[in-house]
Structures are given as structure tokens and as C-alpha cells.
Amino acid sequence: MTVKEAQLTATATAPVKRAPGRHRIDVKPSKEGSSWEHVPRWQIYVPLCVYLLFTLVPFYWMLLFAFRPAGSTSLVPWPLTFEHFDKVWNERAFGTFFQNSLLVGVASMFMTTVVALAGGYALARFNFRIKRGFMLALLCSQFIPGALMLVPLFEIFANLKMINSLGSVIIAETVFQLPLTMILISGFIKNVPASLEEAAWVDGCGRFRAFCAVVLPLLRPGLIAVGSFAFVHSWNHFLFALMFLSDQSKQTIPVGLATLMGADSVDLGALAAGGVVAALPVVIVFAFIQKWLVTGFSAGAVKG
Hints:
Structural class: mainly alpha
């Protein structure tokens, strides 16, 4: 080893001296969310309990009147009675109302989802001149109240001889829900990479077959989310069924609930039982698809 190499080796292995007056500062990484660790638990649970109380008390009150015998003032529905349910289901024809609402809800959900799926795909995958204007028109249509659509829709259905037909309510519900559903589905489709479709085209698939085999399975959470909301909206909507249906055998549950409230008196037991019948399908739907709702709506919130 030469003298120069020995000097370089000694310089590299020599300890580094810190300048006087300077001290090393060790910065510890802060834990994410550490500010919540110092918040007392009662400040979190008390507001949640108050909110839960205000949410559940109306439901308990409805169940109390539905299952409590007529004339009772007890705050506990005991002994249980089903006389109010028998009255609304048989005497008030709620069985027929239930079937009509189910038909309107399922049909409008299917039509809204299918049409919005085709329109959303066109908005997500194709570029055309009036695309921005069309999207703006869809957004602006959400500011139009449903009551303003009654007169033109009534005139159209009267000319088509569709007044007092469930088909008129189904078409009206589809038209009313289609713009927002189309916008949401177009956002879901944009998050699916177009390269997946292009790979299917290379393998010999056409556009429709590639869409059904590649894109459609990935849209399942989003379709379940928008379809469930379309069903719930059609199930609960009151205005279209009231205006377009005059025959009692064609009425839906929201209109049937309105018939339980008279001008001079209200049968609270029957009204509460009808409310339970009306709310039960919605509760069942959301109980089974709640895991898909968060996944579906978060899928359209982040651009892929």
C-alpha cells in the first residue's frame, strides 16, 4: 500500500467530530390520529347515543301503536296483537297495494339501470361534440321538482291512453331517476381501465361481448347501489301514483297510507301497521346490500 492510499484509508475510518454548540435533534414520527387518543370517551359516545335516541324513538313509537291493542295506553306493546295488520292487509286492501308497489319498484329499477348503463357507457367511452352540454343538461334536470313534470307527463299519458295504468307510473319513475343514475354509472365505468376492453377485442370479442364479459362484472357494486336507490325511491314515491292512478286496485302503498287518514279522525293503529308494512321491504333491502353500498359509491368517487 502506498502512502497516499494509507492516508485516504485513515481519513475514511476516522471518527467525525461534531461542531461545538450543535446538538442532534431526534424527531419521533407522530402517530396518525394521536389527537383522538386524548379525547374522553364520553364526548364521543354521548352525542352518538343522543342521535341514536332521536332516530330510534319514532320507529319504536310506530311499532308500539302497530302491536299494541286498540285503546291501550301502555308504553310496552304487551300483549302483542296483530289485529291492526289484519285490518290494513284485508279490509284496506294493503295486499293489493303491496303487489302494485313491488311491481312498480322492480320494473322501474330494471328499466332505470338498463337505460342508464347504456347511456353511462356512451358518456364514459365515447367523445362527441355535445357531450359537455349533455352532461350539463343531466345535472340541471336534477333541480327541476317532480311536481313540475306532472302536467306534461299527464298530457302525454292521456294521449297514449295510459292513465290509470301502472305502466305510466313506471315510465314516470324511470324518467325522473334516469339522469342522476346515468351520471353515477358513467363515473363507475370511467374507473374501469379501457385497456381491459382492448385486450378482449384483441382476443376476438366484439364491443358488446367485451363489455358483458369484462366491464359488467366489475360494475356489480355500483349497479347494486344505484339499483337499490332506484327501487327505494319508486317504492316510497307518492306524487306520480296519486296523479296517474285513479282506480283503488291500482294504487300503491304510499297512496294507501294516505287513505288511512280521514278528515275528522285517524286510526293510529292501522296507520302504524301500514307504516311497518311499507318500511319492511326497504329495511330488508338495505340489510342485505349494505356492504355493496359503501363499495359501490366509493368506486365512483376516486378516478382510476
